[in-house]
Amino acid sequence: MRVTILNAAFAVLVAGAASLATAQDCWEPNRCECGWYAGVEYLLLKPDTHRQGFDGFFYEGAPGAALAEGSYSNELQGGLRFEAGHVDCCGRGARGRYFAYDNTLDYTGEWDGGVPVALLGPVTVDIDVVDLELTKSVRRGDWELQGAAGARYGKLQITDPSGMFAGLAAAVFGGATGVDYEGVGPTVALELGRRLGDSGTKLVGRGRMGLLFGDAVVDSAFLAGGRARFDDEFTQVWEFQLGVETKRALAGHRVDLGAYWETQYWDSESGVLDDFRLHGVALKAGLSY
Asked: Which residues fall within 8 angstroms of residue 115, CB to CB, at 6 or more apart?
């Protein structure tokens, strides 16, 4: 069911972006908003995985282990997204985006290999994503539609930086454990907006999907040699945003403000990323001129 929904969403994104790419008409000239723009989003996101536990990233088949489970802290953690670009008065443009999320979470769990051992310690989540895209926008009445396509670089690291959890001897965990994924590939995005009268405020919904091809490295004391490598790992990265935006004139320029709910989903072919997810809220401030 999940795969069907994601495939349908991907088809909508591609179809929308393709139709906009062939559109020749300009925006309504009396409502043209062309020029340079830049903005920053501050995000509060909670990390989550499909398998809440030590086995998801750090446990790889320890002999005789009867139980390996646990969970991460449920606190929202901060991240940043920067965006800058240019759009002409016919809605054609280009932009660059950078997303950074680097936080340390508390982990609480248990490993039972005959004698229960508490697993307590920090887990670091480090994400860097860069997008370079061409955009096309059209406007009809109070409706706005924008499509984008380009290239993406993405990196996701989930590690135990201390090299061992409290309760496990240093001889067992002799080095950092976790997963390190890095890849590049295409990305497509679609945005739909609805203006609320002449107030300068609109409702917006955004969807984005990136297809990354790269290498994943898993470090674990339970693996032969301590390391496993997954070459040519295929990963889908989904992002969705729903929210409200408003524009205000300031000294001949335009200030852009926004508030959104956001979710991200990393789905790797081998499952090594454990269906990693982020969800939370985002606040945006930008300037157009």
From this structure: none
CATH number for the domain whose boundaries are 2-288: 2.40.128.90
The pLDDT tens digits of the residues spanning 117-140 come to: 666 667 788 999 999 999 999 999
Read off the pLDDT of each residue in 20-27 and give the average, rounded to a whole number. Answer: 46
CB count in 10 Å sphere of residue 21? 14
For residue 117, the one-letter residue type is V
Q: How many residues does the chain have?
A: 289
Burial of 218 (0-12, 13-18, 19+ CB in 10 A): buried
Rounded CA Rg of the chain: 22
List b or e across 102-121, with b for residues whose CB sees 16 or more CB atoms inside 10 angstroms.
ebebebebbbeeeeebebeb
The answer to whether 246 and 228 are in contact (CB under 8 A) is no
Q: Hey, CA dihedral for 27, 30, 31, 33, is it positive or negative? A: positive
Q: How much of the chain exceeds pLDDT 70, in percent?
A: 66
- Rounded distance, CA 235 to CA 195, Å? 35
Cα(93)–Cα(26) distance, integer angstroms? 12
What's the rounded Cα separation, in Å, for the pair 86 and 251?
A: 20
pLDDT digits (tens, 9 = 90+) for 188-224: 999 999 999 888 899 999 999 999 999 988 776 555 5
- Where do the H-state alpha helices sit in 143-207? none
Residues in a beta bridge with 122: 106
Of 73-82, 96-105, 106-115, give the range with the top mean pLDDT.
96-105
Per-residue pLDDT at 11 exceeds 60? no
Torsion angles phi and psi, residue 124, rounded to 5: -100, 130
